[in-house]
Design a protein that fits this description.
globular, Globin-like, mainly alpha, single chain
């Protein structure tokens, strides 16, 4: 575990150095490698595969975008609704509980969903496609109350 963490920290440090040099493609590629090695949940893979295929993005972008939007939801939704949502939707708790994903977001993301998407190599228009696609996936499993709270949290990203 310590070896894995040390290896990850070296990779993050290298990626941050590359990001500071302005080579976002390299950052995204390095993050993709780190995240793909750390994500083992089949539910999480189903979620990221669905988003990747629907939106034409890579798995890191799918994980990072999901984490960014769900972080927004966590801050805007009542805690019990958010917790219920994570438990009911396959893959969400894996994404939000993945320490590599959250670490990558903290290093590459900004303070907003838009900044995080930009750091992951996605433009602002992608978030307007991403949120409804993720909501569609979530709606297969979530309660009406969860969906209502989530729609309210993401209202600025749902057209």
């Amino acid at each position: 575990m310590i070896y894995k963490f040390s290896k990850y920290m070296v990779a993050v440090s290298m990626a941050v150095s590359v990001a500071n040099a302005g080579f976002m493609d390299s950052v995204v590629n390095q993050a993709t490698s780190m995240v793909s090695h750390s994500t083992s949940s089949s539910a999480s893979n189903t979620l990221t595969d669905t988003l990747s295929k629907s939106l034409g993005i890579n798995s890191t972008q799918a994980l990072g975008g999901t984490a960014a939007l769900m972080s927004l939801a966590a801050s805007a939704m009542p805690k019990n609704e958010y917790t219920s949502l994570l438990k009911s939707v396959p893959g969400l708790s894996s994404v939000m509980g993945n320490s590599t994903v959250t670490s990558v977001l903290s290093h590459f993301g900004g303070k907003s969903v838009d900044d995080t998407f930009k750091a992951l190599g996605m433009d602002k228009e992608t978030v307007y496609k991403f949120a409804p696609t993720l909501l569609s996936y979530i709606s297969k499993y979530a309660t009406a109350e969860n969906l209502s709270a989530l729609k309210k949290a993401w209202s600025s990203y749902l057209k």
